[in-house]
Amino acid sequence: MGKPKIAILMDENTSGDATRYEASKTYFQAIADAGGLPFGIPYLAEIVGTVVEEFDGLMTCGGRFAYPADWYIGNEVSLAPQSARFEIEKSIVQGFLARDKPILGMCAGMQMIACLMGCKLTPDLKTTFPEAQEHDKAGQCHTVTFDADSILPRIIGASTLSVNSFHQEAIAALSDRVVAAGLADDGIIEAIVIPDKTYVIGLQWHQEHFVGTDHAGNRFFSGLVEAAQHIANADSTG
Prior knowledge:
Layout: E1 5-9, E2 11-12, E3 21-22, H1 25-33, E4 37-41, H2 48-54, E5 57-60, H3 85-98, E6 103-106, H4 108-116, E7 120-122, H5 125-128, E8 136-146, H6 152-156, E9 160-166, E10 170-173, E11 179-184, E12 189-193, E13 200-203, H7 219-237
């Protein structure tokens, strides 16, 4: 059987003039190392249907951009800039969810999955959760503890994981369609799964920073590719 095709939705330079797509090479290396074929996806509405129908798996990158006001708790609004990414990512993720195709969302990618499944965010976790530790600092790591009943500890072979932390927004209200499968020591949700889907996982941290190292979290990339391989095999056999 051929290698599964993994769509990687790229980010854009919203901190500048938003004239460039941005995605670390490690996203692509992670999929290649796991045995998949990675393809970068731009923000073009006319290719959404092709991506949803023809790709076997989806990975969405981190980024800083605003979600709609009703995706936040209370009367809060995002402090991040607007991005053309939102509508394209929303359509692609909805298409993959509807077809039960595998998704791995990281940072903003996790938040997109969560909100599409009914969760709500805080635009500033330190304001909403004043006792929380720092979650948006380069070079800082913290521990995530996984729900023993979720698939996450089985994927990586461990109940805890040391991860980086680069996020100002966070899930503040959980929907009953989403499982908080990983928590930081301060209770901030750091990983989610959608239990009625085969492989839909969100990670709040940037696992791509660990590519090329012996970090157990890299097995999430392998899990995505393995789940996508089942899709590719099913398509090839008709």
